[in-house]
Amino acid sequence: MSMSNINYRDYVWECDYGEHSFVISKLKKLLQTQNAYELGYCFIYANNNPYNMELYVVFGYESPKEGQITAMQEAMRSSGAKYRPDLTNEDLHAELANKRFQFMAANDADSLDMMEETLFWYKDRSQVASIISMRPLGKVKTVFLSHSSYDKPLVEELIPYLNAKGLPFWYDKISIDYGSTIVSAIQQGILDSGAAIFFITNHFLSSSWCKNEMEGFLNRLGSGHNILLLSIVAKDVPHESLPLFLQMKKYLRMSQELTAEAIATEIAPILQKHKNA
């Protein structure tokens, strides 16, 4: 839709479809203060395709009063909208032929009330969340598994037993994405975890990685964070070889008879208690 009047100034905004009620409330207030002469047009394009939901608002100004464009920009930014100078109204209007958008020309605040239900086929995010849980999964405090790479077989055998008891874990092999910076990912894992299990073997004690992880959790503990630190100590590691702070804490000593299932049975209750605290 091309406007021949060269005095028009267009502003294209990309909005969050999931917050469309909030966006519309902002538009209503704006249209109550700016008449059709000052604001030449306000076009709304809503894509109701559930695989590609989109919402665009286009303002075309002909003879705005001082401060009206600024007021529009502030209103849109406060709604979370993103200014899109790389798009034009013509780009959006051309997609009507491809049935991409429901289209509406909003003349005033009252017209928005009448057209909102037909413009949007789906409820906004807050309405859906009041009916169906939208709580992010995997965002609870995890248990960080600090171990030497030589000891992964035991760690990987233990994880399913503890998962079955409702305990989520931060495990480097799974939690660090390909292409991620390992040091930054581990640091974030330490920050995101509410507990840590140290698998202390001779390999662990000689690993600088494991030492840094332990120091990271000690720093958090010393800063007043509610961090649970558990240790599983290999049978060939003498008590005197443990870091001093671990010598003063009760730990689980591994033995030939202590299977991954048995270890899970021993430590799961304290981890669950800490998780629910």
Descriptive terms for the model:
alpha/beta; five-stranded parallel β-sheet; five-stranded antiparallel β-sheet; 10 strands; Rossmann fold; 40% helix; 277 residues; 12 helices
Give a brief description.
With 277 residues, this protein is α/β, with parallel strands linked by helices. 40% of the residues lie in helices and 19% in strands. It has two domains: 9-129; 142-276, Rossmann fold (3-Layer(aba) Sandwich).
Question: Which structural class do the helices and strands define?
Answer: alpha/beta
How many domains in all? 2
| Count of helical stretches | 12
Rg calc: 29 Å
Strand share of the residues?
15-25%
- CATH homologous superfamily of the largest domain - what is it? Toll/interleukin-1 receptor homology (TIR) domain
In the CATH hierarchy, the architecture of the largest domain is: 3-Layer(aba) Sandwich
Distance between the termini: 59 Å
Query: Helix and strand string, N-terminal first?
Result: EHEEHEHEHHEHEHHEHHEHEH
Task: Enumerate the strands of the largest sheet in spatial order, edge to edge or round the barrel.
Answer: 4-1-3-2-5
The CATH topology of the largest domain: Rossmann fold
Poorly predicted residue ranges: 1-6
Q: What is the arithmetic mean of pLDDT?
A: 90
- Quick one: overall form? elongated
* Total E-strand runs: 10
If you had to describe this structure to a student in words, what would you say it looks like?
With 277 residues, the chain is α/β, with parallel strands linked by helices. It is built from twelve helices and ten strands. It has helices at 20-31, 68-78, 89-94, 109-119, 125-129, 152-163, 172-175, 182-192, 202-205, 208-222, 244-247, 260-276; strands spanning 9-15, 39-47, 54-61, 82-83, 102-105, 142-146, 169-170, 193-200, 228-233, 252-253. The strands form two sheets. A five-stranded antiparallel β-sheet has the order 4-1-3-2-5. Helix 6 packs across helix 12 (260-276) and helix 8 packs parallel to helix 10 (208-222). The protein is elongated. Residues 1-6 have low confidence and may be disordered.
